[in-house]
Amino acid sequence: MNILGPDAIEWLGVHYRTILKTGDSGGAISVVDSVSPPKSGPPRHIHHEADETFVVLTGDILFWLEGEELTRGPGETMFIPRGKEHTFQVISDTPSRHLVILTPGGFEGFFAEMAAGQFRIPQDMPAVAEAAARYRMDFTGPPL
């Protein structure tokens, strides 16, 4: 059972539920409700055409943005401008629930593709990178 409800998806232990679809905003924005387990986080990457804002609801997250490390906890936000190399890791002993706001919208489709294929990192990285390129994202380095 997915902890975010029956319409949520899961990939690499992270649960995602799109709560504002790109089509519902005329393409302007999408919002994904996400729950990430302790020690989880993606490889370093760049979104070339989307700004990304995290609103942390529970847990603590260490963000790495262009070489600078910043910690955010419940009630705090992290803005990542398009074109900036970044990653993050949940550093609390409990999962982090956070909203991921993408402007413009569209990147939530990447999560859906990854969940459908249950791609693994690093084993399936060529397929992951190929999908990421369709969403104007490039992987640039390892996770934290």
Q: Could you say which overall geometry the principal axes of the C-alpha atoms support?
A: globular
Numbering strands along the chain, what is their spatial order in the largest sheet?
1-2-3-10-5-8
Low-confidence stretches: none
What share of the residues does DSSP label as strand, in percent?
A: 35-45%
Radius of gyration: 14 Å
Please give a structural write-up.
With 144 residues, this protein is mainly beta. It contains 2 helices and 11 strands. The strands form 3 sheets. Strands 1-2-3-10-5-8 form a 6-stranded antiparallel beta sheet, with helices on one face. The protein has a 3-stranded antiparallel beta sheet with strand order 7-6-9, with no helix packed on it. Strands 4-11 form a two-stranded antiparallel ribbon.
What is the fold's blueprint, element by element?
Elements: E1 9-11, E2 14-20, E3 30-36, E4 45-47, E5 51-56, E6 61-65, E7 68-72, E8 77-80, E9 86-90, E10 96-103, H1 108-117, H2 125-134, E11 137-139
Antiparallel strand pairs: 1-2, 2-3, 3-10, 4-11, 5-8, 5-10, 6-7, 6-9
Short recap of the structure:
This protein has about 140 residues and is mainly β. It has 2 helices and 11 strands.
Features:
3-stranded antiparallel sheet; 39% strand; 6-stranded antiparallel sheet; 144 residues; single chain; mainly beta
